[in-house]
Specification:
Layout: H1 6-21, H2 25-42, H3 47-66, H4 70-84, H5 91-107, H6 111-128, H7 133-149, H8 153-171, H9 176-191, H10 195-212, H11 218-233, H12 237-252, H13 255-275, H14 279-292
Helix pairs in contact: 1-2, 1-3, 2-3, 3-4, 3-5, 4-5, 5-6, 6-7, 7-8, 8-9, 9-10, 9-11, 10-11, 11-12, 11-13, 12-13, 13-14
C-alpha cells in the first residue's frame, strides 16, 4: 500500500483514537503500526517524507501515552523530533510533539529534559503567532511549576505572568484558564511569602470560579482552601474559618473525585482550630470527616 500524502496519516490518526475510545486496543496498535510502516516504506530524504513519518510516529506515541506506556511513547516522540529537526516550516508539528514529550518527562520527574522540551515547544508556538498563543500560555504555566519546584521564583513568576497576560487578552477575565493561572500565581506568591499579592490573586481566582463554575465546583473549593491559608498566615482567623467551611462543604459534595483534597483541607483546618484553642471543634470536624469518608 503506497502512502502518497499525509492525508492518509490523518485518517489513521482518527482511526487509532476511535479504536482506543471503543476499547479496541489491539486494533489500535495494528493501525498505529501500519501508519509507521507505511511511512517508512516510502523512504526518501525529502522534508515532506520525514514529516509524514514524524506524524505517523506522533500517532503511535499518542497511543502509547494514552495507554500509560511511557517509555514507548518517549521513543516514538524522540524519533519524530529528530525527523522534524529545526525546520521552521514544521513549527506546529515540532511544538506539538515536544510538548507531548515534555509532559511525560515532567510527570516522571525528569525536570531538565522537561524544561528543555517545554522551552522548545514554546519557541515553536511563539513563531507561529496569535493562533498558537494559548498553547504558549498553557506550556508557560507548566514550565513555571518546574521553576517553582526549584525555588526559582523569579523565573516562575515571569512565566506565569506571561501566561496570565495571554489568557486575559485572548480568553478574557471571566474564563476557567484565566482563573486557573491566577490561582497558580497566588500559590507562587504564597510560597514566596508575598502575602498581599497572594491574597489578591486568589481572590481574583475565587471571584471568577464562583461566577462561572459555582460555589460547589472543585476549582472553587480549591480557591476557598487557598484563601483560608492566606488568612491564617495574616492571622485573620474568622475569615480563614469562613473559607475553610466553604471549601469543606464543596468537597463533601464531590468526595468521589476529591477525597484526597478533602482530607488535606480537613487536616489543615483541624490544625488551625487546635492552634486557636478550639479543640472540641477540631475533634468534631475530624469525626465528621471520618464518617463522610466511610
Amino acid at each position: 500500500m503506497e502512502l502518497e500524502t499525509a492525508n492518509f496519516l490523518h485518517i489513521l490518526e482518527d482511526r487509532v483514537r476511535t479504536l482506543l475510545e471503543e476499547g479496541k486496543v489491539d486494533e489500535a496498535r495494528l493501525s498505529a503500526d501500519t501508519a509507521v510502516e507505511n511511512a517508512r516504506s516510502v523512504g526518501g530524504e525529502g522534508a515532506d517524507r520525514k514529516k509524514d513519518l514524524a506524524l505517523a510516529l506522533e500517532v503511535k506515541g499518542d497511543m502509547h501515552r494514552s495507554l500509560n506506556e511511557w517509555d514507548s511513547a518517549c521513543t516514538d516522540y524522540q524519533e519524530a523530533l529528530g525527523l522534524l529537526g529545526v525546520n521552521f516550516n514544521f513549527d506546529e508539528e515540532t511544538g506539538r510533539v515536544a510538548a507531548s514529550l515534555a509532559g511525560i518527562h515532567d510527570n516522571e520527574g525528569r525536570r531538565m529534559e522537561a524544561k528543555s522540551l517545554y522551552e522548545r515547544s514554546i519557541a515553536c508556538f511563539e513563531r507561529i503567532g496569535p493562533s498558537a498563543l494559548l498553547d504558549v500560555a498553557n506550556l508557560s504555566n507548566n514550565l513555571a511549576f518546574i521553576y517553582e519546584a526549584e525555588d526559582n521564583f523569579d523565573q516562575a513568576e515571569t512565566l506565569l505572568l506571561k501566561a496570565l497576560r495571554i489568557s486575559h487578552e485572548h480568553r478574557g477575565p471571566d474564563d476557567v484558564l484565566t482563573a486557573s493561572i491566577c490561582n497558580n500565581v497566588g500559590s507562587l506568591y504564597f510560597k514566596a511569602d508575598y502575602a498581599e499579592q497572594a491574597r489578591e490573586m486568589h481572590m481574583l481566582a475565587l471571584e471568577t470560579r464562583s461566577k462561572i463554575l459555582g460555589e460547589r465546583h472543585l476549582d472553587t473549593a480549591q480557591s476557598h482552601a487557598n484563601l483560608a491559608l492566606v488568612f491564617v498566615k495574616s492571622e485573620e482567623m474568622d475569615a480563614a474559618k469562613g473559607h475553610f467551611d466553604r471549601a469543606i462543604e464543596a468537597y463533601e459534595g464531590n468526595l468521589t473525585e476529591a477525597s484526597d483534597d478533602y482530607k488535606i483541607v480537613v487536616e489543615n483546618y483541624s490544625d488551625v482550630l487546635n492552634l486557636i484553642g478550639e479543640e472540641k471543634a477540631a475533634k468534631a470536624l475530624q469525626e465528621r470527616a471520618a464518617k463522610k469518608l466511610k
